[in-house]
Amino acid sequence: MLSAGLAAAQVDYSQYVNPFIGSEGPFPGLAFGGGDIFVGAALPFGVTKVGIDTYEDNVTFSTLNGGYTPQGRVTAISMMHESGTGGAPKYGIVPQMPLTTLDGVDVLDNTTYWQRRIGQDTARVGYFATRLESGVGVQLSAGRHSGIMSYDFPTGGEKHILVDLSHYLPSETGGSGNQAYVGGSIDLQPGGKLYTGYTTVGGGWSESAPMTVYVCGEFEEAPDQAKTFTGRLTDPIQRYHTWSNGPVPQAVFGNLSEVSGPLNNRVGALFTWSNASVSNVRSRVGISLISADKACNFKNKEIGSWNLNDTVDAAVQEWNADVFSKIQVPTDSSQNRTNLVLLYSSLYFMHLMPSDRTGENPLWSNEEPSWDDFYTLWDIFRCTTSLYHLIQPERYVSMIRALIDIWRWEGFMPDGRSGNYNGLVQGGSNADNVLADAFVKNLPGINWTEAYQAMLTDAEVVPYNTFSFTDFTASVKEGRGALYDWIPLGYVSSDRSTRPISRSVEYALNDFSLSQVARGVALNDTQKYLRRSAQWQNIWAHNATHQNFTGFLAPRLSNGMFNTSGYNPALCGECEWSAISYEGTPFEYSFTIPHDMQTLIQLMGGPVEFERRLDYMFLPNTSEQNLGANGAGITTLMNIGNEPDFATPYEYNYLNKQYKSVQQSRSLANTYFHDAPYGVPGNSDAGALNSWLIWQMLGLYPVVTQPVYLVESPWFSDINMTINGNDTLRITATGLDNANSYYVQSVKVNGQQWNKNWLEHSDVMVKGGTIEFELGNEPKLWESGEVPPSPGHLIL
User: Fold this and answer.
1) Does 61 have pLDDT greater than 50?
2) Is there a cis peptide before residue 28, judged by omega within 30 degrees of 0?
3) Are 519 and 527 in contact (CB under 8 A)?
4) How far, in whole angstroms, is CA 509 from its chain's centroid?
5) Whose CA is closest to 609, among 555, 655, 567?
6) Computed from CA positions of residues 592, 595, 598, 602, in that sequence, does the dihedral angle turn out positive or negative?
7) Which residues pair with 562 in a beta bridge?
8) Please, which residues have CB within 8 angstroms of residue 469's CB and are 6 or more apart in sequence?
């Protein structure tokens, strides 16, 4: 049995991390639509994520946000990536590319030098390695704002490193989702051993304004030749295709310095080692959003040695101490290794984003923390941020203060943010939910008066419409774009707004969040926002029927009439920006009212009918919607590959039939999560799917915006969580057999017999405590106490 005081150094938990989980499609034979995760080297919440950029034919996005594709040709090794996100690519900037010949190479056209890989890629915590078809072996590691690259060239051949500062991850779909290179510069120090410069790139999924990243690169051995280049490219996307618009632009090689100039010319440098005795070329690179000098300081401070293993070892130590040791489980030979890999890999993925850029904010200067790459809060507010609250409290305070600071300087908190720019908003203003969840759990270190003012902006101010190609009807940059409906009508209409059903549901939860914080800082506002949190009921069509069920969320026109002619709540068209609901059908969204399950159960016809409908969600062949990449192979209405359904399998707790929650949620986890490249059922979404699995393995599930956790069934016999910095929550399970014996027979909390299938935050999450499960192989109605609360209960 594992001691609660076990030191992190005694176990190297990083050995249980498989960085390739989610690097391919969700099922064997499907190349894409999987986790879209970053495969490379990174630190927890690091600014740099050092990895390969690849181009693979015949996919929706020619390279994904993580840069990595299983069969793609390598176009560069770059310093910045997102992870697990399914939108148009962002970053893939500040590159290097090793070359063994210049024959046929055009530095302005990377189709002339991209490389396939041979053999198997290798990845572990803090380390990535691959071999190019040219014979060059590549090894990578990372600091917080820096990276180290080691290139092993074939003996006796040519050795070149190409640095193209105009490089970025492209999107074949173009439009508003495409990135754009704006300009850059590069300067070579005499001898060519050190180079500095910057690249400015905008656009991408967040549709951001241009962001400048400064670079400082250094080689261990000075090259024998170093020269800059520049060249005009009329269409940056063309560099991934054949030239078709006239003569191929020619690169102009210079000497020690090059600036892109007014025509946004591409700039870079080519470094060559002629000495036959040199076969290994190593490089350290630092980046900064402030200056090249800071980039050089990061490089020197964070990568203090030319031994790549030193950086790898430091990364492993940090991951173990700051992340993996926060949840300790037995690791002896009797344990199921697959479960260990799923647990610690999931912890790894949920700590790759967002990015802690404190001290690196180029937009304004103050003493507040700075974070970026919230991609997006829509994905992580349901169960990721609540885990940060417990195991990363200091960083979580820092994140929330950064969200408030963005409002202070830019007018709105983000729902999504990358490239120092708010965007995009998929549904509601979900920073409100994050703040409310932290408030009701008494997170210290937050100015809640200011926090509430930021939330009020979301609730009352219609954001300026940027007329994005994504959705022309209202702002998708920040805030709640459909407030022009929500406030006067009490719902989001289907004739004046997009995503009317999902946004109505999300706006309701956002307003419940305001009511929660108002109880502490603006008591007179409480009832106003509590009543607005019930406005989801205004789009409940009591007579709408489908598959022998009555009562559904349904589209409603601005004149008050329901638009149910030919309406099928199990369909949502393309289920994207212009659809009636986003990444989920109205049938699914009809279960997403966590603040008022009591009313929801009543509107569905009472407990018996609610249970029958909930059962239907899990039946095979009930899905009527083409789920595309996020849910390929899923035949049930229940789609664990998309965030709106995260809480649905746990809703049997509201009927005091917790055993069915255990049954359904475990079935989902066992079916769709694997220690394999296809190991998640959809985009990892910045670790959102991974955090769902972690809660499942802990035997708990958080109810967002409430200090409540649903009690389920743990996957380990002994779990020691370090919470709130230095307190211990210990979860034990007797009678556990993950194959046969996992139904709860009884529960004790802090040594006392427990008859409720839920806990309050104060029970065990403040000063720690114990939860003792007795498990068996037969379902049991063990709970006799009250069902979980519905604090937003109000019938309009």
Assistant:
1) no
2) no
3) no
4) 21
5) 655
6) negative
7) 556
8) 175, 176
Q: How far apart are the first and last CA of the chain?
A: 53
Distance of alpha carbon 377 from alpha carbon 584, whole angstroms: 17
Beta strands at 137-142 and 146-152: parallel, antiparallel or unpaired: antiparallel
Closest CA to 68 of 88, 87, 58, 82: 82
Helix (H) or strand (E) holding 470: none
**Residue 427: closest CA among 478, 385, 468:** 478
Q: State residue 563's pLDDT score.
A: 87
Fill in the amino acid letter for 547: Q
Closest of 723, 688, 668 to residue 731, by C-alpha: 723
SS3 assignment, position 78: strand
- Residue 512 has φ and ψ, to the nearest 5°, of -60, -40
Please report where in the chains the tokens 């100039």 appear, as a residue.
261
Query: Could you tell me where the beta strands, DSSP code E, fall in 477-539?
Result: none
Angle value at C-alpha 578, between 574 and 580, nearest 5 degrees: 75
| Alpha helix positions (H), 579-701 | 586-589, 597-603, 607-617, 658-672, 688-698
pLDDT attached to residue 172: 64
Instruction: For residues 40 and 147, give the distance between their C-alpha atoms in angstroms, rounded to a whole number.
Output: 11
Copy the structure tokens of residue 91: 């970053």
Q: Could you tell me which of 469, 471, 432 has the C-alpha nearest to residue 454?
A: 432
Give 395's Cβ-side CA count (13 Å radius). Answer: 20
Phi, psi (deg, nearest 5) at residue 409: -100, -25
Strands 159-164 and 179-188: unpaired
What type of residue is 190? P
Instruction: Evaluate whether 253 touches 227 at the Cβ level (below 8 Å).
Output: yes
Dihedral angle at the C-alpha atoms of 673, 675, 680, 686, nearest 10 degrees?
Answer: 120
pLDDT tens per residue across span 644-664 = 999 999 999 999 999 999 999
The residue count of the chain comes to 796
CA distances from 182 to 203, 251, 265, 269 (A): 10, 18, 8, 18
Place of tokens 């095979």: 620
Tokens of 334: 């009797």
Strands 769-776 and 727-734: parallel
- CA atoms within a 13 Å half-sphere pointing along the CA-CB vector of 210: 12
Q: Which residues pair with 208 in a beta bridge?
A: 203
Q: With cut-offs at 50, 70 and 90, classify the pLDDT of residue 410.
A: very high
3-state DSSP percent of the chain in helix, strand and coil, to 5: 30, 25, 50
Q: Which helix (H) or strand (E) holds 720?
A: strand 718-723
Identify which of 349, 376, 373, 350 has the alpha carbon closest to the alpha carbon of residue 360.
373
Measuring CA to CA, which residue among 250, 282, 255 is closest to residue 266?
250
254 sits in the region (left: phi over 0; alpha: psi -120 to 50; else beta) called beta
Q: Per the omega criterion (within 30 degrees of 0), is the bond before 424 cis?
A: yes
301 pLDDT more than 60: yes
Cβ distance 754 to 724 under 8 Å?
no
Residues 66 and 609: beta-carbon distance below 8 Å: no
- Between CA 49 and CA 660 the distance in angstroms is 41
Q: What is the pLDDT of residue 233?
A: 60
Distance CA 760, CA 711 (A): 10
Vertex 480 angle, CA 479 and 482, to 5°: 150
Rounded Cα distance between 757 and 224, Å, is: 70
d(CA 451, CA 650): 30
Q: What count of other Cβ atoms lies within 10 Å of the Cβ of residue 771?
A: 24
